[in-house]
Amino acid sequence: MHVAAAIFDLDGVLADTTQAHYLSWLRLAKEKGIYFDKQINERLKGVSRMASLEILLERSGREFSAAEKASLAAGKNNYYREIIGSLTPEDLLPGAVTVLDACRTRGIKTALASASENAPDVIKNLGIAPLLDYIVDAKYITNPKPHPDIFLSAAMGVDAEPRFCIAFEDAEAGIRAIRAAKMMAIGIGCRKRLCQADMVFASLADFSLGMIPPFCV
Known about the structure:
Elements: E1 5-8, H1 18-32, H2 38-44, H3 49-57, H4 66-84, H5 96-105, E2 109-112, H6 119-126, E3 134-135, H7 149-157, E4 165-169, H8 172-180, E5 184-188, E6 199-201
Parallel strand pairs: 1-2, 1-4, 2-3, 4-5, 5-6
């Protein structure tokens, strides 16, 4: 068996944009008088913007109309875009370029499976767009992680069978999505939190393609 494609989440895997999301949600929460902390923020990792908003509003104490939710989500996105506008290649996490380069050298297709609709702008600012063969358009993903849709879409985008794909995630919901897609799940981050992954590394700097078990290469 060979690896046909490597699929990457963005936030917390290739770049540390999680802080930008946290600060954006925190600003929105403070404006609306809603309690928000880093523990709640953990639940938002790998989750779409609207699904994240629903989690945030659990502490609001009142109901919001669809129009109000749309306005809140747009406001958060504006705050986020203010921050990511200043991203540069220096904001890439250790090992990101090395692993992407290694995949391309080996003829392994690369794809991005991020829940963020801003992903194309982020990777452009990070300077890694040429290293990715396909970017999933999150606007067209109906079911967010932990559903496998975004990873299956990424595999389809590079014409790879899911069983020949490896995928990288830093969120529990993302690992569950990868496993539901029947791909090899590689966790980046906390081993305890990502215990459902097939392999877990502190960062991409600790990973190499040679670590994939023989039956997958």
